[in-house]
Amino acid sequence: MAVDRLLPTDESIDLLALVRDLCEHELAPHAAQAEESETFPRDAFRTLGKAGLLGLPYPEQYGGADQPYEVYLQMLEEIAAAWMSVGVGVSVHTMTSYALAAFGTEEQRERLLPDMVGGEMLGAYALSEPQAGSDISSMTTRAVRSGDFYVLNGTKAWISHGPHADFFTTFARTSDDPKHGISAFHVPAGLDGLSFGAPERKMGLTGSTTTLVNYDDVRIPIGNLIGAEGEGMRIALSALDSGRLGIAACAVGLAQAALDLATAYAKERQQFGQSIADFQGIQFLLADMAAAVESGRATYLHAARRRDLGRTFVREAAIAKLVCTDAAMKVTTDAVQVLGGYGYTREFPAERYMREAKVTQIFEGTNQIQRLVISRDVLRSI
């Protein structure tokens, strides 16, 4: 069922039509097979890139589409509903580009950003490490200044796109200061010393390659330092605020797909001489699923509109990520229940949706971390 969206301009309405057409013809038909075979959807990203959908929230002068965040997120939701791995990939790419777009110099933006958001390239966000996930301050990857270069050594973990990425927004320690010793770098793919681990064998999002990224004396020109030395933690956390909204929108898209599947199945499935959609137990279950989807959509749009107005949205982004991803987990689980035994088989995508939903509660900051962000902001405001 097409979501009845409230969009701010005629241009965004036309964009929605384009996205829905691509989702119907270029994404959805290939999702199940690619996830089954664990095939990275690089062609899908190229298709979206050629349509101008890999730089939606960035300025036109740098190759973007100059769309408000509330429009970008609704387009992202549509993509995720058609193919979650691709939706998450677009979110990761957009977050990866954010650091340079928001904190880079004008020279860097003119030199690097058009290729990053113009559609041909795909980015990866290299922040987490094997022993440094939520605790960014325990990062050990190090960048040492050597003449006109920084030399990077260390390992990043859980990096979406891995060897398929064309650039990496990489965070590395430039001093031992726990909070002010991390710096951000733009690292192009293909450099000597850059290598990758084997793809992780994951529960869901199996079409999205996730690997270790190893830096072994990787030399980065000093002109690829993003922001000032020691500003990396602030850059990383700022990018994550926007990235959490991307994951929130993807989670809502996944939940919407599960709701649509469950609704269609309930109307077709016959038991005791009637459609199971006529049973009040199923009706109430579908109603709760719809309420969860709509509530999630409202929270991410509220945060996005604050962002578009230049207002603070840290708490709102955390709330959106928490509410939307918890909703996705519940709605996809309930979709399996509506389909009964068929929901537990791979004949229908319900079980895949449920597996894909779980990680949304974990990446871009676990939902326990979101509760910490929210509670600290609430207590600070009293």
TrEMBL record:
<protein>
    <submittedName>
        <fullName>Acyl-CoA dehydrogenase</fullName>
    </submittedName>
</protein>
<dbReference type="Pfam" id="PF00441">
    <property type="entry name" value="Acyl-CoA_dh_1"/>
</dbReference>
<dbReference type="InterPro" id="IPR006089">
    <property type="entry name" value="Acyl-CoA_DH_CS"/>
</dbReference>
<keyword id="KW-0274">FAD</keyword>
<dbReference type="InterPro" id="IPR037069">
    <property type="entry name" value="AcylCoA_DH/ox_N_sf"/>
</dbReference>
<dbReference type="InterPro" id="IPR036250">
    <property type="entry name" value="AcylCo_DH-like_C"/>
</dbReference>
<keyword id="KW-0560">Oxidoreductase</keyword>
<dbReference type="InterPro" id="IPR046373">
    <property type="entry name" value="Acyl-CoA_Oxase/DH_mid-dom_sf"/>
</dbReference>
<feature type="domain" description="Acyl-CoA dehydrogenase/oxidase C-terminal">
    <location>
        <begin position="230"/>
        <end position="378"/>
    </location>
</feature>
<feature type="domain" description="Acyl-CoA oxidase/dehydrogenase middle">
    <location>
        <begin position="124"/>
        <end position="218"/>
    </location>
</feature>
<keyword id="KW-0285">Flavoprotein</keyword>
<dbReference type="Pfam" id="PF02771">
    <property type="entry name" value="Acyl-CoA_dh_N"/>
</dbReference>
<feature type="domain" description="Acyl-CoA dehydrogenase/oxidase N-terminal">
    <location>
        <begin position="9"/>
        <end position="120"/>
    </location>
</feature>
<dbReference type="Pfam" id="PF02770">
    <property type="entry name" value="Acyl-CoA_dh_M"/>
</dbReference>
<dbReference type="InterPro" id="IPR009100">
    <property type="entry name" value="AcylCoA_DH/oxidase_NM_dom_sf"/>
</dbReference>
<dbReference type="InterPro" id="IPR006091">
    <property type="entry name" value="Acyl-CoA_Oxase/DH_mid-dom"/>
</dbReference>
<dbReference type="InterPro" id="IPR009075">
    <property type="entry name" value="AcylCo_DH/oxidase_C"/>
</dbReference>
<comment type="similarity">
    <text>Belongs to the acyl-CoA dehydrogenase family.</text>
</comment>
<dbReference type="InterPro" id="IPR013786">
    <property type="entry name" value="AcylCoA_DH/ox_N"/>
</dbReference>
